[in-house]
Amino acid sequence: MPIRIPNDLPAQGVLNAENIFVMDTDAASKQDIRPLEVGLLNLMPNKIETEIQILRLLSNTPLQINIDLIRIDNQAPKNTPKAHMDNFYLSFDEVAHKNYDGLIITGAPIAHLDYQDVKYWDKITTIMDWSRRHVQSTLYSCWAAHAAYYHFYGYNRQLRKQKLSGVYAHSVNAVHDELMRGFDPVFNAPHSRFGEIPVPQYQSTPGLNVLASSPDAGAYIVASEDKRMVFVTGHPEYEPETLDQEYQRDIRNKLSPKVPENYYQNDDPQGPYRVTWRSHGSLLFTNWLNYYVYQTTPYNLADLPTKN
């Protein structure tokens, strides 16, 4: 089954070229089924790039999915045309009345700001609290994962002196958890962040399980026992070239970045990329949609239970 996206969304052409089945709004309206309702709160400055990355990962499932693209505020992002935002994005106020089977909240390039200094902190905490009443399962990515942990559990992330950047080996810690179903015992995933929360801190939090972690990158996938919150501290959605683009950007900004680890062939930035994470990235989102969303959500979203 396809993912349903707005008519004329740029991602449609990219995904069609990759032979990924997408359906626009007009065609989806003729389907006599109850599709999953998934919201994407996109905090990244380059909205179109992030849309394509996330929609690609959501596409590998037999379920039909309706996607709402949600913006945090009305400010025009620097790297996305205003017309794109006006045509394809909804404000939170426009969807606050709805219930969703799943919600994805992306990372944001604001690693060094204290949470209270983030201009939309009050708004995003409102959305996090709203999700406890209106969403079956919420997946928080990178910065959003640390921000949600701080909001719900009160523990602030630590900041590394040097950015964690590269592709790291992770071990599955909970082989029988459905989110890890089909994963190899050791798998790779990209990270690009300054924030860090120690594994023992997650382990000491009642109701949370560290499902996958790395000796170099720390906790990668943490989930609540009721499956309604998932914290992913890395970037399974990254394109092959994304870490290189970030590295070159940091060089241009004179930030003296370290070469991303385990990413370039022979650790040579002039060499080809070693792309070793995409199959597990796809599997993670497929498992989330199947086991944490589809198999737990009520048929009538009005019956969605409120989180404690």
Could you please describe the fold and organization of this structure?
Substrate binds at residues 163, 192, 249. It catalyses: L-homoserine + succinyl-CoA = O-succinyl-L-homoserine + CoA. This is Homoserine O-succinyltransferase. Its main location: cytoplasm. This protein has ten helices and twelve strands. Strands 1, 2, 3, 4, 5, 6, 7, 8, 9, 10, 11 and 12 form a twelve-stranded mixed sheet that branches. The protein is 30% helix and 26% strand. It has a single domain, classed as Class I glutamine amidotransferase (GATase) domain (Rossmann fold, 3-Layer(aba) Sandwich). By secondary structure, the protein is of the alpha/beta class.
SSE arrangement:
Layout: E1 3-5, H1 10-17, E2 22-24, H2 25-28, E3 36-41, H3 47-58, E4 65-71, H4 82-88, E5 89-91, H5 92-95, E6 100-105, H6 121-134, E7 135-141, H7 143-153, E8 158-172, E9 186-196, H8 199-203, E10 208-214, E11 218-224, E12 229-232, H9 242-252, H10 278-294
Parallel strand pairs: 1-2, 1-4, 3-4, 3-6, 4-5, 6-7, 7-12
Antiparallel strand pairs: 8-9, 8-10, 10-11, 11-12
Protein name: Homoserine O-succinyltransferase
Site (Important for acyl-CoA specificity): 111
Organism: Aliiglaciecola litoralis
